[in-house]
Design goal:
Number of domains: 1
Bound molecules: coenzyme A
CATH topology: Rossmann fold
CATH superfamily: NAD(P)-binding Rossmann-like Domain
CATH architecture: 3-Layer(aba) Sandwich
Shape: globular
Distance between the termini: 37 Å
Length: about 260
Amino acid sequence: MNNVFADSILQGKVAFVTGGATGITGGIARAFFEHGAKLAITSRKEENLIAKKQYIEENGGECFTVVSDVRDYAAVENAINAAREHFGKIDIVVNGAAGNFLSPASELSANGFGTVVDIDTKGTFNVCRAAFESLKETRGQIINVSATLHYLATPMQIHVSAAKAGVDAITRNLAVEWGRFGIRVNGIAPGPIEDTEGMKRLLMPELRDKLLRRIPVGRFGRIEDIENAALFLASDAASYISGETIIVDGGAWLLGTSFS
Ligand code: COA
């Protein structure tokens, strides 16, 4: 990977990553492995976990997988306990499991809104809460994957905007409450990242060029841009950063999402 971090910056660390089999969070998991971490990964889809575990192990790493839905607290607690038992500790938790689709608010059902809030917001709380004792033992840290959708307003995304606003609140509140246990809590808010399922499903093709013209740095993001932010937050270089959500979007949110 093209980055400035030493291969060993996460040597000896154990990272528990939800949604860590694919997409942006899959990239974070792979980058953590490439920099020395052992991985515990959860996903709702077993086939994705099998592929990820095979990749990590073929490349000389250790990967423990658990099928689990972050909405189910008991399942999350079991996954955290199993990972803690397998590796003896957990140093880093990454909350990447998320749900998303486009829908105008006027057509979105209450259950559709609630489903995304349950996955993103309640799921993030569930994992943080279940990992608290483990993170207290290691003076560990949490990285929550958020978004920029709620900084202004994003049409067709009221559910995700509300859910991610909640995630940012969790990041700040836990940073304050758990700082005294040595636990740092931060977030990453990705902008439009190329080659992700989210971008393929959520960006209408006819808006692609218009959006590109509105990104100040002149390109779409890459998964490795998010990996680098996660490596920085996970490293000792960020040891005095807590309660912060780093925006990695090339400046895009500053221009909003209105294309007229
Ligand atoms: N548009 C409008 N409503 C939708 C929707 C869409 N594209 N997709 C789901 N919903 C609504 C459903 O209609 C349902 O509400 P209802 O009972 O009132 O009809 C509710 O959301 C739950 O849907 P369901 O499919 O039963 O939930 P699920 O738990 O199986 O999956 C998601 C929910 C959000 C994860 C699902 O949309 C999904 O699989 N998305 C693709 C994966 C993804 O989002 N990955 C994140 C990458 S950015």
